[in-house]
Design a protein that fits this description.
The chain is mainly α. Helix 1 packs antiparallel against helix 2 and helix 1 packs parallel to helix 4. It folds into two domains: about 100 residues, no CATH class; about 50 residues. Helix content is about 65%, strand content about 0%.
């Protein structure tokens, strides 16, 4: 594995658990570290071997940030491939400390299902309560109409 592959794997793995700013900061640090080690005479392959698997390195960085209270994003596994579209967007959902509160898709679907069931239940309950009244009113209107014709 060369430097570019190492940095790309590290960046992808970090994107699953850190903000884009934290990812950029860590990638920059490791790029500078590799550069400085190569400048003092080490071979690039030797430096990369000493760093180990970039995914394991990313997992360690993410865990350290979680322990420090600086976690961000989802709880994706460290080896999951993360596309550019999956990065959280900071918007009005952002918390004051810069974190974005994100719910997993299954939880959103569960909440929506519960809401729909509750609405249907309320509509059914209201209909069952008011159905006799509505039927009585319609019957009175029908009788009045019949007598008006005669």
């Amino acid at each position: 594995m060369n430097r570019a592959e190492f940095i790309e794997k590290l960046q992808r793995a970090l994107a699953g658990g850190l903000s884009s700013g934290q990812v950029a900061e860590n990638v920059r640090y490791y790029q500078e570290y590799i550069d400085s080690e190569v400048r003092i005479g080490k071979r690039e392959a030797e430096v990369l071997a000493s760093l180990g698997d970039p995914r394991l390195l990313a997992k360690s960085i993410i865990e350290a940030n979680k322990r420090a209270g600086a976690s961000y994003g989802s709880n994706r596994e460290y080896d999951e491939e993360v596309s550019e579209e999956a990065e959280p967007v900071e918007d009005e959902a952002a918390m004051p400390d810069g974190r974005v509160f994100m719910l997993p898709g299954w939880l959103i679907m569960l909440i929506l299902t519960v809401i729909v069931v509750v609405i249907i239940g309320l509509a059914t309950a209201l209909f069952s309560v008011f159905a006799p009244v509505i039927i009585a009113v319609l019957a009175v209107i029908l009788i009045v109409k019949i007598f008006q014709r005669h």
